[in-house]
Amino acid sequence: MEEWVGLKWHDYVTRHAMGEFPEHAVHLKDEARTLGVLFRALGGDPALSLVTAEPRHFQIRRRFLQKLAGTHRKFELAWRDEESLRLPDRLALFPSSQVNRELYLWLAALASLGEIHHHSWLQGNQAMVQELLARWPGLEPVYQRLVKHTLQWRPDPDSLPDHEGRREQAIRQALIHPGSVMELPDALTDPWPVVLWLYPVLGRGQIKGEVIGDDNASSKPGGLAKKRKRRRAERVDAFDKDQGLMVFRLENLFSWSEFIPVDRAGDDSEEDDADAVADDMDMISVSQDRSEASSAIKFDLDLPSEENDDLRLGPGIHLPEWDWRRQGYREKFCCLQPMLSKDAIPGPLPEHLQRPARTLQRQFSALKPLRQWQRRQLDGEELDLDACLDRVVQQHQGVGEMDQKLFRQCKQNQRDLACLVLADVSLSTDTFINNNQRVIDIARDGLQLLSEALTASRDPFALFAFSSRRRDHVRFHHIKSFDEPYNDTSRGRIQALEPGYYTRMGAAIRQSIKLLRARPEHQKVLLLLTDGKPNDLDLYEGRYGVEDTRMAVQEAHRAGITPFCVTIDEEANEYLPYVFGSTNYVVIKDPTQLPSQLPKLYMNLTR
């Protein structure tokens, strides 16, 4: 405790007000990997985002120059909800880097137990501390060390007015002996923040004696602020992308420059003023920081026109969708529309693909069924000479039962496997990857080379593509069914593929599951090609889309289907392990290599 020698509380507070202990600061970005591993190891939700916590306002008492004065202060405190874990961007509360680092670890461990609410802030935190220490006794020394330092950091109860002093004494008692304090005495100001505890989602608590801060300094005491500031999420770049917490807010999968939500509110919106929002959406105001813009602008999305749309095959198929917030399915929530290109012109394989196609055909022809003789059959094409000779020997020796299986039959050694290839043809596939090629161009080449290879192996396969425009129009493009041959017609349909709308991945996967379930083969593979994350114009963005896609993938596993995702999205390592699992996806870093790599991936996957 050398750091504390000669450091009185008001001196400590003075240093804290002037910048804490910057020489002992620990930053979240440096600890993110460790915190993620710990959080997941202790049972925390791996889908939570790890983001920095914005400051909260407190009206507290502090002694300065021997006088008590009320002051508004901001503190970064830890909290979590169903979508994110918020931790301070920097911890420099204590004059020890090790202790500041242990505070990060303690908060992540405490958050792994769940969310805290306004009505249970005091008792809930004490109960969580007790549960955490009971589960993991090894954290007891860390907790005791943090309590010792925290008590040094907190104000002396004797230096506070009567009511505030009793409240401070109760908080100290709750820290030293968790579970011993049932309520806090009333006081006029907020209590000094309890840095070892979690705080509720931003907003002022309503429980008597538990005024614990507000994100709106102008709100009236004792009441919720009517308007809250937009939460700011910051990316933690140093996090290990394959482990632990997700390092981005699932609501902010797209940056401002990539995507601006302009959906009109409707039956999918959960806002109270959905109708008013819908009326205002014809004229919207946009600025990069989402503050008020100096002028309003009008624009519409560059979406494909329906004037020359593809042929619709039937009235549409209604499918469920998983709502992670309700933890249940919305039955018949999506309408999937099978489509067939009416502009597809049958044609041969493009010239630039013919040479690599011949190479793949030679390689995959080794996988096609081979004729093999099956010996010792009751019936067959010809006698099995070895079986006949064994029977003669048995006859002469007069031992054993006479073998009746004296024939052999020639059968083909079939690969008991079916594959459905599902390609994402959303708007993002219109992006150029070089001066000559778009994503959709390399996707078409990849589909054609893979089809040539699968034709040579004689594995049954089907080809479909998808995009979406809200839940009532999920486009499912028919290219080749399992029962159709792969020929110039199929090649023409691949060449006719163009960028469509958005990426409602769950519905497309569920329809693919239905088609694969009808196949008699023992091994069934769903191969998904995509260049980005699940998203759509309505609620299907952020965590909602990711969770629905993850549930559809789990449905595939339960149906005995192997789903595998191939993507060129550079950020896929941040979300695909959660959706598909750590071994069921691959990221092609150089998109131009997709056509040549796709058949190789299929061969490795189906061996």
Automatic annotation (TrEMBL):
Top-rank taxon, per record: Bacteria
Ranges for domain VWFA: 424-605
InterPro entries assigned: NorD/CobT, VWF_A, vWFA_dom_sf
Listed PROSITE patterns: VWFA
Listed SMART domains: VWA
Coiled-coil ranges from the UniProt annotation: none
Classification via PANTHER family: NORD PROTEIN
Designated name of the protein: Nitric oxide reductase NorD protein
Source organism per UniProt: Marinobacter oulmenensis
Lineage per the UniProt record: Bacteria, Pseudomonadati, Pseudomonadota, Gammaproteobacteria, Pseudomonadales
